[in-house]
# Entry
Amino acid sequence: MGKKPELATQGVRAGQKRTEFQEHSEALFLTSSFVFDNAAQAAARFTGGEGGFVYSRFTNPTVSMFQDRLAALEGAEACVATASGMSAILSTAMALLKSGDHVVCSSAVFGATVQLFGILARFGVETTFVSPTKVEEWQKAVKSNTKLFFLETPSNPLTEISDIAALAAVAKKAGALLAVDNVFCTPILQRPLELGADLVIHSATKHLDGQGRVLGGAVLGPAKLVTEQVFPFLRTAGPSLSPFNAWVILKGLETLDLRMRAQSAAALELARWLEARPLVARVFYPGLPSHPQHALAARQQRAGGAVVSFEVKGGRAAAWRLIDATRLISITANLGDVKSTITHPATTTHGRISPEARAAAGITEGLVRVAVGLEAVADLQTDLERGLS
Ligand SMILES: Cc1ncc(COP(=O)(O)O)c(C=O)c1O
# Structure
């Protein structure tokens, strides 16, 4: 066998299936159902006795091209696409957990993920939240009924880094699965399965699409978890990815390698520039030597990623003044777009949690998050300089 293609090549080529028309670009199959030759074939397809497409809630060629391409990028045996990142997390939990089970979760995960584990408590699944960076807290939180470890690294918005390999070892010893939300890095910068994680979760809405157009998600890992457990939940419950969205994201994957490298390089340049601004108290970016887990990030990630957070002197008033002075960067909560975005986490993404919980999480009133896109860094600097002088 020849050498395995590089990630850049896999992003462009992996998973493509051509129809009899030999189209060069991947086809978009906008169809709810598929036709059978006869009743016997219909029966065989429904029971799984014969492979092939049945109904787009659970089988569609465009969705399957997206799944195969993302699986190749993550080095995963199997991938199930979902309607959004949240439905990927929900499908994982519903497929793998039952009443009486316990989850250990990083306290620095996306807000809706925290709320989702809160909803699952009503169904008898208990969750303990622990520090993303203190491995000993995960170890201490383990109970006899712990079934799942869940984390996101780098975290949002403070870019804290969890040690995937170390936590995979703790999870394994506890007989629990480790699921890693890989939204910030994507497989281009970080491959959690190679570091010992059991499952990778994606909000494809972010970098995988890359241009802020559609929602999508995915769960990746071994077939015995993804195909045999997560897929049957999706087939029955239906939080499925639409073929149109799959097609958009599939085309997004073709430029993912290029975008992640370019956006990370721009983010590093911007982070260094911000560190030198007198009105900036602190910059949070894993690519900076001043980041507390810089060495771990360098080991675990190919680059720092596209998100830079920083604290301005003067609290909320100064942060809002900076945000309101921008003319180029979009004031919106999304990230992973080629258009740079700016957010005030304390009053938006983290506005619904209590001030005490916010303070404990390190989300101060002066904190600003920039998700760096593909504009020239000099123009981003001009845009931010206005509010920093
Ligand atoms: C890290 C992370 N995980 C999951 C999600 C949820 O994804 P979606 O909005 O596609 O449901 C988000 C959304 O912002 C996110 O940032």
Observations:
- DSSP finds 15 helices and twelve strands in the chain.
- The mean pLDDT is 96.
